[in-house]
Amino acid sequence: MQKLGKNSGPRNRKSNNTSLLSEHSVEESPKPKTFRVDPCLIMDDIIEKLQLLDYVPRFCKTRGHVPVSRTYFAIKQEQSEPTDTKVQYMIELCYWLMSLGFEDSLR
């Protein structure tokens, strides 16, 4: 029976296999650049679309809400309204938007 030396164990075999794989591996392509859109620009677009739906007279005035600013949902503000109030506003706004579609389907 032949004694195995320090360099002939399973650990050495793994490192040899790894080095063989790395020699023949394909170079990885660089990660694609991700573009981050400014949340305020998105909110500007949302507010513009809400204006087209007569958001102020049909939602804000009938429900006693103040129209949202371009930073209301986009930027976390410690001193403004609590998060729960913003979530409630978003829920009511979404409910109103869905009700518009429901009203149109009844016509």
Helices and strands, with pairings:
Layout: H1 10-24, H2 39-52, H3 55-63, H4 83-106
Describe this structure in words.
It is a single chain. With 107 residues, the chain is mainly α. Helix content is 58%, strand content 0%. The chain has a domain at 39-106. The longest helix has 24 residues, at 83-106. 2% of the residues are buried.
Low-confidence stretches: none
| Helix/strand order | HHHH
Number of strands: 0
- Mean pLDDT across every amino acid position: 78
Shape category: extended
Profile the largest sheet: none
Helix content: 55-70%
Please compute the radius of gyration using only Cα atoms. Answer: 30 Å
The termini sit apart by: 92 Å
Report the total helices: 4
Structural class: mainly alpha
- Percentage of residues in strands: under 5%
Short recap of the structure:
The protein contains 4 helices and no strands. It has 107 residues and is an all-alpha fold.
